[in-house]
Amino acid sequence: MTAAPRIAVVGSGIIGASIAWNLSRAGAAVTVFDAGKRGGIATPASFAWINASWGNPEPYFRLREQAMMEWRILDRDVPGLQINWCGGLIWDLPPEELHAFAKQHSSWGYGIREVTRSEIENLEPNLKSPPEFAYHVPEEGMVEPLATALAMLAGAEAHGATILENCNIKWLGEDHGRVTGVQTHEGFFHADETVIAAGTGSAELLASIGLSLELAKPMGLLAHSKPAGELLRGLVMSPELHVRQTAEGRLVAGTDFTGATANGKLDEAAAALNAKVQAMVAGAEHIELDFFTAGERPTPADGFPVIGRPDNRPGLYLAVTHSGVTLAPAIGVMTAAELLQGDRDSLLLPYHPERLLRPAA
Question: What domains can be seen in the chain, in order of their start residue?
Fold first, then answer.
């Protein structure tokens, strides 16, 4: 009998969790390492909008579209995810750009339709000043990102995976150009394959083997209110604010889909976001800010995912991207297929790591 491949997954955010779950259920011997707590840093600070919305060239749209389909499969296979396919209401672009986006994405098969002010009032009756028109995408949804990552990690454990929290990786091990595992504070862990899904921490790990990854780290900030009764039915994307309501009634707000860049103090910026919610949503006038989440967003320099094996570095696989909540199910499935069967999905062809990897200075 052939021994199960021993795979190290560095990072336990939603990307690492999805990869670990898919690998472990396929029979791999998986160990997940995280320098902090399960779920990582960027994942809890995600707005968690499942979408293939504007700003996407068609190849990236197709990847996101596939990821949306994979979410429905994941919802079937992992208990308790509580995905809410609530739909998204969008008017956060100038009118000409909004119409162009809708025409383009509709031609690609996206389920987007224009809605009038009266239709908007039916969709979201508590919006104080609804626009004259917007676009609605019924197939978009939302999840609670940390809870989802934790559920996938628990599923991976049920299939035999080991999850190591507060386990700092000092460097990657190499032997004649092959990556052989990770050096932790407790010793060296040998692996047949090492997957780097460590978000903004990925660049530092790659530097340990002489590689430089072009990665931006914009700060994301989201304001979370105290729970309230139902005030919103779906995702609302206005020019001033993106906001959704969780199953427990919290209003989560940011100024773009993964949070806001805070130029001042984080608590002040979060309070300002909560004040915008109070001004936008009827019934939220006295809603209180409970807490905020903030984290650096792993954003490859050209804005697109870095997924796959670097050239001439056997034993190493990279999975670094923003929009991790939307993409996680697809990246998990595709990474497992590539690592275990050698099958690279055609949707990943534009996102090979070599385009953004350079020798470290």
Answer: 6-45+146-216+300-359 (3.50.50.60), 88-138+218-295 (3.30.9.10)
